[in-house]
Structure formats: C-alpha cells, structure tokens
Amino acid sequence: MPFWTKRRGGALALGLAAVLAASAASAQTITVVREVDSDRYDPHRSTARGASEVLFMMADTLVALDFDMQTIQPLLAHSWDVSDDGLVYTFHLRDDVQFCDGRPMTADDVAFSLNRWIDPETRSPVRWRAGNVAEIRALDDVTVEYRLNAPFSELLYQLTQSFASIIDRYNVEELGDDFGVRGFNGTGPFCWVNWTPRDEFVLQRHEAYSWGPPIYENQGPAHVERIVWRIVPEENTRMAAVATGQSQVTQYVPYNSLAMLRATPTVDVHQSDAAFWTYFIGFKIDRDMVDDEIVRRAMVMAVDQQTIVENLYFGEVEPAFSYISTAALDWDPDLYADLIRTNREEANRLLDEAGWVRGSDGIRSKDGVRLAPVAYGFTGSTWQNLMEAVQADLRQIGVDLQVQLFDATVAWGRLATQEFDLFGMSFPYISAGDALNLYFRSENMPTPNRMNWNDPLTDELLDKGKSAVDDETRFSAYAQVLRQVHEAAVWIPLFHEPMTIAQSTRLAPVRPHNIYGAGLYKGLDLRFLD
C-alpha cells in the first residue's frame, strides 16, 4: 500500500494501487530506462543523480531554473524580495499548492524542509548549498523569511536543486529512517507508487497539480498518467528498448550507439551543452601510497584521456585535463598551460626517482608495499569500461589498480567509508564555485569530499568566493583554489560530457534540462503524439 493512503487520525483514502488496477488498461505510461538507481530518495541525504531525477518529479522547490541554466523562475514562490545587503530573502508562496495526499502546503512546510536540510542531525552532505543560515522561519501561511549570516550570490540557484525540495513534515515523522525508502509525499507533478530497488520506480500523475514553472507550456497536470523509471545496466539492452519502443526515453545513451540511434527512424536524439558534467577518479589523499603527491601526479600522467574519448566515446565527449570545463563561470584561463597531461615517460621517471621499483611482473613496490591501490566505483557499463581503460593505462607505469564496483544502492554507502584509495565519480555544476564548494570543503568529509582534502586556506578562499558580492573577488578566490587542487593532483580528470537524450518519435520532442543532470526535470512536457 502506498504510504499516502494513510491519513492522520487513522482514516483511509483510496489507495493508489487500486487506482492503478482500475485504470491499467487505459493508462498512458512512459517508461524511462536508466543505468543506475539511487540508495534512497531523501532529498537531504542523497547526492545521486538517480535520486534527483525522480525527486524533481515528486517534489517542488521554491524557485525553478530555466532551460538556459541561468534564469531563476517562480515555482512554489510566486515572487521574492532580497534585502540590499543580500542577507534576507523573503519568499511569497502560492496559496493553491497541495501535497499528493491532498493536504495544503504552507510556509510551515517550507520552513520545516529547509531547516531539516541544514540541521546537523540530518547529516546532509550538501547542507553547504543552503548558505550560512542565520534563521529560516514562516512569517505567516504564505511568507517565508530566509536570513543569512553572510551573502551567498548563488543561493537562488541552489534553491532550485532537488536538495531544497519541500517535503511533508508528517510524512517524515511517520516514516522515520524509511523516509524516501518506503514512501514520499511531495507537491510535484507525480506521486510515489512503488520503488523496487535496482529494478524500477513507479510514479502516478498528481491530478491536482497546476503550479508548474513557467518554463513549460503545460504547468499541470502532467500529460501522461504514469512514469516508470526502469533500471537497465546493460548498454545494448537499453538501446534496444528505445529503438523498439519498449522504452520511450533515456538519457543514459552509450556513445557507441549514437550513430545507430540517429539513423533509426523511430528515434530522435537531442543534445545540450547548457551545463556541465565531468567524470573523474579521485584520490583519498591520506591513504598509504596515494598520500604521496608524486605517486598521484604520475598516475594522472599515465591516463590517456584522448584515447579513452576516441575508443569508448567515439569523439562525442571532450577529454578532460581540468577538474571543471574551461567554459564554466570563474574558470581561470591562466591555469590551462599548467594542467597535468598524458606523459608516461615522465610518470615512469617520477616513480623511479621516488624509489618505486618494478618487479618481475612489471608492478612496482617500495619498502615491501606493492603499488596496488583499491578503487571503488559503480556497476554498469559506464564505470566498468572506464575503470578497465584506466587500469590498463596505469599498468603501463607499474601500478596495479584493484577495481571494486558496487550497485548504486550499495555504492553510496561504501563511498562514505575510509576503506578505499581511489573512487570513480561524475558530477554536474554550472560554475567553479558550484564544483569547488561541493568537493573541497573540509566540512564535507567524508562525503562528498571523499578525498579528505582538509586545508584551512582552501576553506578560507571558498568562504570568500561564496560570500563575494562582486565578480572580481569571487573569481580571484576560486582561481586560487583551482590552482591549489590541480597542483596537488587530487583527481584524475577523464572527460566532460554533454546532456544527451534519446526518445521515441511517438513522443513530442523532449527538450533536455540540465539541472543536476536530470534531463527530464518535471516531466510536464512528456506526451505521446498519437
């Protein structure tokens, strides 16, 4: 039984399962295939793209981000005011919003949600995105005051993210640790029906929904009755599902299938470069072996990004030598010439001089320690292929990378531990500040700062950039951090990826939305043509 069939006080509402059974024959269902799942669907506790993909459909935020990834639009708040000093944001809420169970949303729900996000007991890995908060409170049923201790120029952008989703406080209290695992009561255009981990997530249309962001011609209810998010790890199976119409849309498009899909009459392919997504392998820099900057630098030099791009991605992505795209806001062009690039001869020289000696099998060791660091990553074809390519490159310099891949429902927990030396990850961002504040703040250890980068100067510079009220100060602070972390060889950058969506021609054209790499965002434009 779906969680929101229960009403407070013990009364029962019509179960969504019964609705589905009664209308199954006529239901318009869109099936979305994707490569990986999330570990949970609690907006404050998951940084997985898989979680955000579904949360954007089940929940709303105070404000929305337009397709240009720059313009802030109304959503739950129809307007807002900002004080001259940038410390007080006053949000004026719509008065017609309902949760999936029919309860009206008020300012108390907004204050509860945002305060839960920043509460240390929640242990949110992304609480920094809320800014340096002094107080968040409801002034009345339709007004929320958001007070900061320091200006935060990106606050409105961060409030568009799924982490700032408005949730039902009664639902949180009722489900406890199972919130986002057994149920979720949101205000979004779709409602939770059922989640079978590693298999599928079923959503049903929220019939009362009429407050979608103005970026959509249709602001609700959604055109389709049901959306099924189905996990299909195998690339060929995903593509066959789209090509044959078993699935109507996916953003998990293997690059070796792009040419085939573009030539398939029943499939359309759309791409967008409006935001940035970067793949990398990070070092946990306080672990034995990789705590040596020379070893890390040699390993970065061993990886041939250009060959990876050509062999695995058919030239459809951009090789990455930088940690963020050079087109992102506040990238420092002066850093470009100093980036570490593929140079195996130099990598071997560095390891030789550092005393790492090759054995009869070609693998190096030093003081009886074999140079065989352990890397964690996600199951699925993407990371399996990437890790195998990097593993082969590292053997060229005598490093025996030990790869362990986990299903996403397990991986996020394993990646919060201290038991690995490297990890594979990818992430979305729109600016240097967005990326650097996410990964390099000391307070974000052990996740998402899985590198254990703990540097007071970095924290000071990030605070300076985050609270800057002018472009020059912000750029200067972030440029210094970019140089710090690149020179320390904290990551092996791999490639920068555009947003790609493959869809059935039975659907109206889908415009990719790059917010947190979610692709389909609210899903309000998803509809069949026939």
Radius of gyration: 24 Å
Distance between termini?
32 Å
- Supply the helix-strand structural class: alpha+beta
Characterize the biggest β-sheet.
Answer: 7 strands, mixed
CATH architectural group of the largest domain = 3-Layer(aba) Sandwich
CATH third-tier fold name of the largest domain: D-Maltodextrin-Binding Protein, domain 2
How many helices does DSSP assign?
A: 15
Number of strands: 20
Q: Please identify which CATH superfamily of the largest domain we are dealing with.
A: Periplasmic binding protein-like II
The total tally of domains equals 2
What's the layout of helices and strands?
Layout: H1 16-23, E1 29-34, H2 49-58, E2 63-65, E3 72-74, E4 77-82, E5 88-93, H3 107-118, E6 133-140, E7 143-148, H4 155-158, H5 169-175, E8 190-196, E9 200-205, E10 226-231, H6 235-243, E11 249-250, H7 258-262, E12 267-283, H8 293-302, H9 305-313, E13 318-319, H10 344-353, E14 357-358, E15 364-366, E16 369-370, E17 374-378, H11 381-395, E18 402-406, H12 408-414, E19 422-429, H13 432-439, H14 456-467, H15 471-487, E20 491-504
Parallel strand pairs: 1-10, 17-18, 17-19
Antiparallel strand pairs: 2-3, 4-5, 5-7, 6-7, 8-9, 9-10, 11-20, 12-19, 12-20, 13-20, 14-15, 15-16
Helix pairs in contact: 8-10, 14-15
